[in-house]
Each structure stands twice: as structure tokens, then as C-alpha cells.
């Protein structure tokens, strides 16, 4: 459950909110800060469900109000995602207009601004006016991954709840909740080190999986593998519409997962190649993918070095 995960990984934050709810002293403006962590948005949804219903305890995952809020289907909760686009003055004006009226269903109203850093000073100034004189039935939840870059005047008007860096187990669980198989969820969480909403048919990830399958087929024929990478992956990337850098992140994440699994289980998936040296090579190339390198040449280099590892 969402609340169980939050109590497990962010006990200080949850205890603080629990005390505030029980004493009816919940602040009208809350800032969820700290490193990137998907539990911040989960808490924003959970807290919104408590606020609109004037409850004192966090609901379970099957709570109808919570489910509707998470589906953006609850009129008294407005969500603005600054991760997808810059938060504009029109977004804030929409909140002003909506919240000038009484609550439609619940007893209170909440607006959630995700990645509040992605807003202009004009938006900050509009928010400040709203925050200085909050209506009794209006609450704001701001989410930031970089509190130091926010205006001091914004931070000073919030109760700041700081999160830890996201645990990879939580990120993996969120990918599983999105419908990915466990192995895929492990690869995604370890490749990205963060949660991103991905479709099950994400072109970058599917392309990476095809590359892994071909690598296993041509493990002892690096020339054929290099030709495949060049002709079937690199030269058609514009036609296929995938992001080559993202593809390589997923590819090396998946290869390293397979190599680790092979080492632990002592199977023969990599029979014929020096397993430890190949693992070191994949780790080295993976770390170079995000740097200022020609990524096609990185794949060529990997195939060239693989020739000397065949036993």
C-alpha cells in the first residue's frame, strides 16, 4: 500500500503529518522537497484525499476518493505537472478561478504543483499572493527536487517535508504497478535510477531488448553483432523514432542484469566468453554512454574488445 511504503521509507515525514492531522494543525501550504523520489507525488495524492474529506487518517489504496484523485477525476483537486511542461500563469489563473468557488464534492480544495522549479518568477509572484492569504478551505502541495533554487519567499511560506533519495525497491515496485514484468522492472529501475512513466510498448526499451536478444545470439561472432548494431539499430534510428542514448542505457542495464544473473546462478548463457572480462567491459561502456562520446563508436569498441574474450 502507498501509506505502508511511505511509513517504511519516510517515517519522519509521515509521523509529522500524522501528528498534524490528529491535532487539526495541518499547514495550508506544504513543500515536499529533497532528491528525486516518486513517493513525493504518492504522498501528495494521499494527503489530498485526507484533506478534501477532512479525515485524520490516511486512506488505503482502494479508497474511492484516492483512486479518483490519482486518475485526475476529482474536481476539488487540481494537479499541474511541471515535469511535462513549464508551469504557466494560465495554470495558476485556472486554480484561482476554480478555488474562488466552494468545493464541488469534498469539504476542502487542494492544488498540487509537481516540479515547482519549472515555473517563471511571474508564476512565483502570483503564488505568493495566493499563499499570503490562503482561504480556510484551500491547501497547496508543492513538489521540488531542488529546493535551493526556489525563491526564499516561497520556501518560507511552506512547511518543508524533506524526502530521502528514492530506494530502488520502491522504483522497481512502481514499474511493476505499471504492468512491467518483475525482470523488466528491475532493469528499468537500475538503468534509470528513478521512476519515469513508460508505456509497456516504449520504443526505446523494446529496441534495447531486441539488441540484447541479438547479442546473445551473436555472442561469439562480434563481427556479425557489429554489423547488426550499425545497420539495424544506428542507421535507422531516425526512421524508427527512438532515442539512441536511452536505448543504450536500457541495453547495458539489461545486459548487466543478465551477466549478474549468470554469475549468481552459474548457468551457461555466456558459455564461450570470459564472463568477468565481458562484465567489466559492459560496465565501462555503460558509464561512457552518458558522456560526450560517439555512441556508435562505443558499440564498435565493445564488439572489437569482445573478440579478445572468446575462449
Keywords:
311 residues; 2 domains; 5 strands; elongated; single chain; alpha/beta; Rossmann fold; 8% strand
Short summary:
With 311 residues, the protein is of the alpha/beta class. The protein has helices at residues 2-9, 11-22, 39-53, 64-70, 89-99, 121-132, 152-155, 168-177, 182-192, 203-217, 222-234, 237-240, 244-265, 275-289, 295-306; strands spanning 29-33, 77-81, 109-114, 138-143, 159-162.
Task: Report on this structure.
There is one protein chain. With 311 residues, this protein is α/β, with parallel strands linked by helices. The chain folds into two domains: 2-166, Rossmann fold; 201-309. 55% of the residues lie in helices and 8% in strands. The chain is built from 15 helices and five strands. The protein has helices at 2-9, 11-22, 39-53, 64-70, 89-99, 121-132, 152-155, 168-177, 182-192, 203-217, 222-234, 237-240, 244-265, 275-289, 295-306, and strands at residues 29-33, 77-81, 109-114, 138-143, 159-162. Strands 2-3-4-1-5 form a five-stranded parallel beta sheet, with helices on both faces. Helix 14 packs antiparallel against helix 15. It is elongated and about 70 Å long. The N and C termini lie far apart (49 Å). 33% of the residues are buried. The mean pLDDT is 92.
Amino acid at each position: 500500500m502507498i501509506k505502508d511504503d511511505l511509513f517504511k521509507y519516510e517515517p519522519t515525514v509521515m509521523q509529522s503529518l500524522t501528528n498534524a492531522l490528529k491535532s487539526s494543525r495541518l499547514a495550508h501550504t506544504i513543500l515536499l522537497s529533497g532528491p528525486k523520489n516518486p513517493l513525493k507525488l504518492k504522498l501528495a495524492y494521499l494527503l489530498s484525499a485526507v484533506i478534501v474529506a477532512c479525515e485524520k487518517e490516511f486512506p488505503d489504496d482502494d479508497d474511492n476518493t484516492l483512486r479518483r484523485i490519482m486518475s485526475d477525476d476529482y474536481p476539488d483537486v487540481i494537479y499541474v505537472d511541471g515535469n511535462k511542461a513549464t508551469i504557466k500563469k494560465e495554470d495558476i489563473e485556472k486554480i484561482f478561478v476554480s478555488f474562488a468557488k466552494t468545493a464541488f464534492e469534498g469539504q476542502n480544495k487542494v492544488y498540487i504543483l509537481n516540479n515547482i522549479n519549472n515555473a517563471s518568477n511571474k508564476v512565483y509572484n502570483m503564488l505568493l499572493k495566493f499563499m499570503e492569504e490562503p482561504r480556510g478551505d484551500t491547501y497547496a502541495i508543492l513538489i521540488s527536487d531542488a529546493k535551493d533554487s526556489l525563491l526564499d519567499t516561497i520556501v518560507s511560506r511552506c512547511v518543508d517535508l524533506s524526502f530521502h533519495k528514492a530506494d530502488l525497491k520502491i522504483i522497481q515496485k512502481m514499474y511493476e504497478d505499471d504492468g512491467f514484468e518483475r525482470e523488466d522492472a528491475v532493469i528499468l529501475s537500475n538503468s534509470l535510477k528513478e521512476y519515469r512513466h513508460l508505456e509497456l510498448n516504449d520504443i526505446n526499451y523494446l529496441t534495447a531488448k531486441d539488441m540484447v536478444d541479438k547479442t546473445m545470439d551473436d555472442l561469439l561472432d562480434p563481427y556479425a553483432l557489429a554489423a547488426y548494431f550499425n545497420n539495424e539499430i544506428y542507421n535507422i534510428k531516425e526512421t524508427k523514432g527512438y532515442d539512441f542514448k536511452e536505448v543504450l542505457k536500457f541495453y547495458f542495464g539489461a545486459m548487466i542484469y543478465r551477466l549478474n544473473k549468470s554469475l549468481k546462478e552459474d548457468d551457461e548463457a555466456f558459455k564461450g566468453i570470459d564472463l568477468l572480462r565481458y562484465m567489466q567491459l559492459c560496465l565501462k561502456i555503460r558509464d561512457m554512454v552518458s558522456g560526450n562520446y560517439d555512441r556508435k563508436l562505443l558499440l564498435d569498441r565493445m564488439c572489437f574488445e569482445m573478440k579478445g574474450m572468446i575462449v
